[in-house]
């Protein structure tokens, strides 16, 4: 009888793991168990009354690098090429990004000329930060906070404005707590290997082998900065669902896993409330903190390590305005914590993906709220009403973008514990988890945003890697 692999969690990581398992030349029996009634996890696209598409989670996927190319390959294999909406390199959403500092929007400099010119809110041209970076010696610590790393190499302004904002934009987190080694591994590696981030970027880490397809070549030729799908990004998990079902994967929805136990013979028993499943191997693609509560007592050291990988909440407010215009054209702007502890940034969705505007087209924006402001409210046990987030978001759109009229449509969602935080020393937690799994020979593989990257591409890759590990060979892709 063939092996049974149970995949826990039907977010993009669990779907990608199942996809790569079932494409093997001799695939195991695959059962995907999802606790909620729908697949996709944080990837969720909803349609407004006028047909506009609002993304409640991720809104763009980067095509760059080997991981970006692998995701595009999967998109082609799923037959979604004609659905892809690219943001080409010459588009304002690819070229312009802004910081909101001192009550004004500032374009981030791009290109060599931009680095030589004064570029407020920075007091000096960023060329000087580059010069400092080239002459700064290599750090000696095995890990460092993003803030400390950036301050040491690029100076206090870049650390407290640019890197602070970047950490808020990507992780909704605090640069003084997040780890450079785990959050921005390419910067950490560049310093380790080349002594300098800039030298590392110039000399490159050596191109890893990349897959090839017509879509990947098009993305490269047109220098795409990101892409979405015509029906919204949720089309991707929906297409994976159809594909997996057609290949015989059993998908159980609305069935939260409530416990895992090891049986004689080393097989798993996966408890689902009133029923259970047996598995030869488990791929866990649920958050680390969830898995930590499911593990049996034999795996207590692993559960302890996983329970320390926490996540923060983000409130996503989608706004739509009729007849309104933005003061600038670009991807959006980020807000450093010194400017506003609660507003992380605003994405100008209509600029990147006007195809998602409804009929008649209305201006769509997404205000992301979180940071220390939200953490404090959560810690105090305050009532987190939709009105609170809506008011704060509308005020930010009015003050930061001049959109003073009330929006015609608004969606508010609080995504609790949605973004894992790779805090200082995260790599040690991963190492202790890996060592425990190897030493105990537990038939369990970890995947998902909790470990090595929160971007959709990272999550898909974590699912692929988990499948490779379970199969012991590269799957057919
Ligand atoms: C607001 C927001 C905006 C983002 N923007 C971007 C972006 O623009 N670009 C980008 O690349 N990335 C973005 N990300 C990050 C990215 O979307 C996520 O990191 C990624 O979708 C996480 O996927 P996952 O499968 O690892 O986890 P999840 O999506 O969390 O999936 C885990 C699944 O496990 C299920 N589950 C939980 N407990 C159980 C249980 N006991 N039993 C069974 N199932 C269970 C959950 O219901 C869920 O479906 C964003 C994230 C958020 C929250």
UniProtKB/TrEMBL annotation:
Residues 12-471 form the Amine oxidase domain. One of its GO terms (cellular component) is mitochondrial intermembrane space. GO terms for biological process: heme B biosynthetic process; protoporphyrinogen IX biosynthetic process. Gene3D superfamilies: FAD/NAD(P)-binding domain. It catalyses: protoporphyrinogen IX + 3 O2 = protoporphyrin IX + 3 H2O2. It is found in: Mitochondrion inner membrane. Keywords: FAD, Flavoprotein, Heme biosynthesis, Membrane, Mitochondrion, Mitochondrion inner membrane, Oxidoreductase, Porphyrin biosynthesis. Its EC number is 1.3.3.4. Belongs to the protoporphyrinogen/coproporphyrinogen oxidase family. Protoporphyrinogen oxidase subfamily. Monomer. Homodimer. This is Protoporphyrinogen oxidase. It comes from Camelus dromedarius (Dromedary). The lineage of its organism: Eukaryota, Metazoa, Chordata, Craniata, Vertebrata.
